[in-house]
Design brief:
Family: Belongs to the Orn/Lys/Arg decarboxylase class-I family.
Number of strands: 20
Strand order of the largest sheet: 1-10-9-8-6-2-3
Structural class: alpha+beta
CATH class of the largest domain: Alpha Beta
Protein name: Orn/Lys/Arg decarboxylases family 1 pyridoxal-P attachment site domain-containing protein
Mean pLDDT: 94
CATH architecture of the largest domain: 3-Layer(aba) Sandwich
Distance between the termini: 54 Å
CATH topology of the largest domain: Aspartate Aminotransferase, domain 2
Domain Orn/Lys/Arg decarboxylases family 1 pyridoxal-P attachment site: 230-244
Cofactor: pyridoxal 5'-phosphate
Helix content: 25-40%
Number of domains: 3
Number of helices: 15
GO molecular function: carboxy-lyase activity
Amino acid sequence: MKHRPSPHNSPQSRAPLFEALAAYIKQPKVPFHTPGHKQGRGIDKAWRRLVGDAIFRMDLTVLPETDCLFHPTGVIKQAQALAAGAYQADKSYFLINGSTGGNLSMLMGVLFPGDKIIVPRHTHKSVISGLIMSGALPIYIHPEVNREWGLIMNVSPQAVEKALIKNPGARAVFVSSPTYHGICCDLGKIVKLSHLNDRIVMVDQAHGPHLLFHPALPVSAMEAGADICVESSHKIISGLTQASMLHVKGPNIDIRDLEEVLLLTQSTSPSYLLMTSLDLARRQMAMDGRELLEKSIALSVKLRSSINKIKGLYCLNPQDVKPFKLDPTKLIVFVDKLGLTGYQASRILNEKYNIQAEMADWDHVAFIFSIADGQSEADRLLRALKAMASSQYGRGPLQKLDIQFPSNYPAMSLTPREAFFSTYKMVKLKEAVGEISTEFFTVYPPGIPVIVPGERITHQAVEYLETMKRLGAILVGPQYGQPGRIRVVAK
């Protein structure tokens, strides 16, 4: 059930942490504690002139008035309780290490070494990192792939059901929904199937902090009955970068274990600016989220229609991803008919028209239309796309390349943890086919590993990485090794 806007006299109208910090900085306190800039007095003058003093005065530490994230008894406890109420959770936790920290915490807080978990192979790198740290054993399932658009969709309930039947000893099911492209799986069916088989359901909902707050949006993890989920409040809604939340619902999660792990995965000097942004983002969505999203969704739907009238461009429509659902706030614009790669189009939009895209791929560019965007921003994006298309149309379509993300994944030869801690040797990437990788190789964004520890490196994976690099993609791999080389298990 979607969240209904809270009345203005409800508890959701409060922002306890923000209110406490706002009251504190009005007091004539003399700080002899961290941070060393002492409420902004020691900050570089150029920075202070640019942003003012108040933001630095609120950059505080654990004090009687500001509470403690890891033993909350005051305003942080109240703020997290309000978040749980807004998000239909039993418990909610503020995260200051982003959803990466949340994924690590979910996996380490629920699973023991040797536990099996059903997990999509197209999941974010942080999930594989969580498997390495927890010692859990992945049972990879493959997402559906739309060959027409060259996009990874998501996992189907049928794939999850098949994995549940084949692996009766699996302890949990992990799902990522929405994807970076806004493609949502049928969470309701997946949760029902998993719970019928007594499996815990974890959801990486990093890209869906807004889903609960409007009836036109796909179902959220808590609505669907998931046991635990993480979401990035800095995506789509108004949290500061790196601010996320972890939500728990039902009796299947051991809260003591989870809270112990949160002590391991988060900084012991949490940012009060990040936590305050979470408090305020929750209040904003609880009170005004539906109205804000109504505007965003209406504008994005209209913008999608307008883009599809521009020669040489195509913006992905909901019917293109069926039976999956598409988050309307994500605009995926294909530019290959202009003879441009997504990387080239993104650079043109940035350098010539001052439009910054969220991400680019070889044949498309992705834009996020958030609660902050209005008619003016929609008009600017549309004008820029029209101008770019007008100047580029007629070059002929981009040469069709068979460079879809590798989907014929090899069988796991070692667990991610075993491979990560194996004795290794360095080899050239081109000569690594058939070897077992001990590290990740990822095209970023979106951060989905092409190569993960424990898998044999395939010719398809190497070819894909080399092609994407040639086209202009950012490859995140062995940053501290030698360029063009990769660590593999030493035989």
